[in-house]
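Running co-folding for pyridoxal-5'-phosphate.
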Amino acid sequence: MIPFLDLKAQYTSIKSEVDAAVLGVLASAQYVLGEEVARFEQEFASYCRVEHAIAVNTGTSALHLALLAAGVGPGDEVITVPFTFVATVSAICYTGATPVFVDIEPTTFTMDPAKLEAAITPRTKAIMPVHLYGQMADMDTIMEIAELYGIAVIEDACQAHGAGYKGQRAGSIGMAGCFSFYPGKNLGACGEAGMIVTNNAAEAQAMRMMRDWGQSRRYEHLVKGFNYRMDAIQGAVLRVKLRHLDAWTDARRAHAARYSELLRGLETALTPVEAAGRRHVYHIYAVRCRDRENLHRSLTEAGIQAGFHYPIPVHLQAAHQDLGHRAGDFPFAEEASRTLLSLPIYPEMTAEQIGQVAAVMEQDVYAS
Ligand SMILES: *Cc1c(COP(=O)(O)O)cnc(C)c1O
């Protein structure tokens, strides 16, 4: 059996550190925000090479607060991609703004900047590229267009901890970058958690207030806020795990390179592309399949867990039919949702396991 990811293996490898961190929080009786969270904010800001980090309870809350800090509200439009996890679009809807989609590039599965300008209107308030699977969008081109029109860029970096674009880190290029520490992400909490990073001091302060009931001081509420605070246990655990992130990312990249080497020239599936100047952190290693169902069946029967991320693009989801889209509106997003198959990838995987997955891919007993 080869699982899609193995959180138990990760815990086992750092058990004594994690246990000590959690017990420390229990003993401190400081359970929400506090010293551990403040330290994690500093350490994660420096990891992303930015000035400020604001810890929150989920990646979705991070996206929501970053949009509010950019002044997004009812009547505004926010441009994003339809090929993403639904939370990107939900966060836009929380503000009362309308999500406007542009299609993805067929090779990187990230926002196609060539289609961006046509989507801009006088109501466009923000652009939210998604660094999908751990590879950053084409930020130079996106920033150039955004600056031309004076529109804020908010990076959905929820899958891209430590990813790079021409030497810059994910989250550090736009007005703000948003991260999720959901357990299965490259840096994962023991529960829910998220973070916003930014170099803008005023917006950092606004988001800090909004995450904690809009308080400047206790019981003084300057703005209408939220309860989006991070648990101290998550801050403490994430501080431990951040120290291992670079080694885990190196392992993911090595596994991806091994997969791509073994699967090169395969007729039934194309391996992922790392675009020039970008450092992919392989949150997901997805291959483009001629017949995804057959490959998936072969893998399942061999005891290998593979997945679809994501089988229905957001513009075709029942929940977002009010936007009035139909099949055919975003052909590359639709093609990606039909053809991509995510293979198991996690730092603790062995070269032997990668070889086993590749061997099943090559045999593909159901190939037509
Ligand atoms: C995981 C994820 C989110 C949401 O993060 P949560 O912590 O689950 O709220 C948003 N966008 C993308 C691209 C994600 O992968």
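Result summary
Residues 304 and 357 are 7 Å apart (CA to CA).
The chain has a mean pLDDT of 97.
Job closed.
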